What we know:
- The protein has 348 residues and is mainly alpha-helical.
- The chain has one domain (2-318): ABC transporter type 1, transmembrane domain (ABC transporter transmembrane region fold).
- The protein is 82% helix and 0% strand.
Amino acid sequence: MQKNNKTNTGNPGVFSLLKPYKGMILMLVIFALAGNMVNLLLPMLIANAIDDYSNGHFALRTIVYQFAGASLIIFVFTYLQSILQTIASERVARKVRTDLAAKISRQSYTWIQESNPSKLLTNLTSDIDSIKMFVAQAVVSIASSVFVIIGACILLFTTDWQLALAVITIIPVIGGAFFMIMRNVRPLFKKSREVIDWLNKVINESILGAAIIRVINSQHLEYQKFLEANTDARKLGLSILRLFATLIPIINFTANMAILTVLALGGHFVMTGDLTLGGLAAFNSYIVILIFPIIIIGFMSNIIAQASASWSRISLVLNSPDSEERGRLTEPLKGNIELNNITVRPYI
């Protein structure tokens, strides 16, 4: 076991899987940033429309054209992004799965038994699915979320810096809550991978030894083994769910307090003439825009943690030495077969 850990120490991280596809990943990021940039302008369009209506020179046709154009651009970039995400994730998963299957096929039967077939099955299924989810969602989502947070903050400060300071306070609160929850969730996700290994092992043994189980009448014992593994998986799932259940009220409370601050302080600024009614509406929209990327970053950081753990498990298999060929004979066998002291008699 120490040998495997040493081998894994020098392994590149899960982001190294993206190097052969950096052109495609770059296009994904560009499409995501372009769509989010247009999305950031929508509250400003709403603010301008409200202010124009308040001032008595509202142009409905212009607003319709602006919103239709923005919606079309967002649709096109989002559609292209979803296609590239699927292609990139499937290509990465196919390469990793092919390399892993080729590596296992070159190993001996003894090596496979020592490596635990149930763990290898999890490597080929759940671990690769985690890597595929990382490629499809995490990279682009984190890049676009950071862009949205920075862009929304800049637009808020350009509208009213005093009210912007009050709104931006929700970022460290929600970010801190996510950090505390994710720090407790990550070990649970790692344990869930081990439980999946155990569950695959129990199922595999039950299928392969079905005949023996019926002969020795040990169905109840096998049922208890499966029930124990399945119960542990359920407990881990409920523990993760409870942690996320405590996170949602924190987010809702923080968002509602930010909205209350905007309505109270922003309403005062509107009455004093320091802020327009459209600017107040834009602030409310940017609160939602700010909260969503923070939630996305929290969830995506968890996906990255899962993918890193899965890639470490897969790397142990990919970097393990190939089985040595014990045969030394290079020439074909020659000679006649000679039988000595052979007696043939009928069987009675």
